[in-house]
Amino acid sequence: MERIYLDHAATTPLHPLVLNKMTEVLNTTFGNPSSIHSFGRESRKQLDDARLILAKSIGANPSEIVFTSGGTEADNLAILGTAKAKKAFGKHIITTKIEHHAVLHTCQSLEKEGFEVTYLSPNAQGEILLDAVKAALRPDTILVTIMYGNNEVGSLQPIQEIASLLKSHQAIFHTDAVQAYGVKSIDVMELGIDLLSVTAHKINGPKGIGFLYIKADTGIAPILYGGEQERKRRAGTENLPAIVGFAKAAQVSMDGLEKKVAFFSHLRETLIQTLESEKIEWNLNGSLDNSLPHILNISFPKTDVESMLVNLDLIGIAASSGSACTAGSVEPSHVLVAMFGEASDRIRNSIRFSFGIDNTEEQIVKAGKEIAKIVRRFQN
């Protein structure tokens, strides 16, 4: 049985070139980058080179890149670090109801410490309107944290417009770009972003490594204490093999960005056309026009998400009910609840399919036909 992996928004397989680069470093470069002897200097050179590559991938300076253990820590550092650094100027934070739990749960923890958080609602396409941000903004707002592209339905947010709105305001602007990085061309200077979170394992890099871009002169307090690594912003010996692997994954991803985006868009259209040709009932969650090309979230009326996922897995098709951290959970997607309400059937019958560089058109056609067979059994 051929297994077809359509859950790349959860994680991606390691690219062979990334594996080769990491293996090389693991075999040859073991020194601590903070050590001044030759072993340490060799590691420092590898670290500096990787930092430069990753900085260039978003139009930043190397000194603005802080390595973390992944997207979750990057989000935590951005939110908690800003709250700690700016609490004397206000305790109001703006975010959305469709953020990743790394953002939502961090904001909720701050509410217990006396911070006030405004959670903006999306429209039916999963988009946050600029007017909603403008209406929520207050003199004591210190942070606005809104994701670049949604990990469940793929909806893109008006990042540049929000940044422009905040130019004359004290609030720091953070965006979780974990899903957008590698499929969208990102220039932090052009966009006007202060803080940006990224992880490696969504772009065929290793798990357990990410970074937070911190715009120069943006005050942020550390949340880990120890050594003076990462310019005293994130303590702990840097994970050099993972960092070098991250940089290689970024190089591969950025070198073929336009081709990859076109490929993902083609796979998404192929799945849609296959489902249409099979004459089953389905509805799109989100928008095809303003979304990440590798994510497709579909509601199948008269089906049940848990049964659907089990049936798909039995025939070798891997998909998801929503964000990776809630995969396997029968709880409704908080994103779909925010978009459609708790009474909507869509929160109980929607599946996320997400594409990767290892997928083929033949796989997508086969998957579409097999999905249709399962859906037809439910709907008939």
TrEMBL record:
<dbReference type="InterPro" id="IPR015424">
    <property type="entry name" value="PyrdxlP-dep_Trfase"/>
</dbReference>
<keyword id="KW-0411">Iron-sulfur</keyword>
<dbReference type="InterPro" id="IPR020578">
    <property type="entry name" value="Aminotrans_V_PyrdxlP_BS"/>
</dbReference>
<keyword id="KW-0663">Pyridoxal phosphate</keyword>
<dbReference type="Pfam" id="PF00266">
    <property type="entry name" value="Aminotran_5"/>
</dbReference>
<protein>
    <recommendedName>
        <fullName>cysteine desulfurase</fullName>
        <ecNumber>2.8.1.7</ecNumber>
    </recommendedName>
</protein>
<feature type="domain" description="Aminotransferase class V">
    <location>
        <begin position="4"/>
        <end position="364"/>
    </location>
</feature>
<dbReference type="InterPro" id="IPR016454">
    <property type="entry name" value="Cysteine_dSase"/>
</dbReference>
<dbReference type="InterPro" id="IPR000192">
    <property type="entry name" value="Aminotrans_V_dom"/>
</dbReference>
<dbReference type="InterPro" id="IPR015422">
    <property type="entry name" value="PyrdxlP-dep_Trfase_small"/>
</dbReference>
<keyword id="KW-0479">Metal-binding</keyword>
<keyword id="KW-0808">Transferase</keyword>
<comment type="similarity">
    <text>Belongs to the class-V pyridoxal-phosphate-dependent aminotransferase family. NifS/IscS subfamily.</text>
</comment>
<dbReference type="InterPro" id="IPR015421">
    <property type="entry name" value="PyrdxlP-dep_Trfase_major"/>
</dbReference>
<keyword id="KW-0408">Iron</keyword>
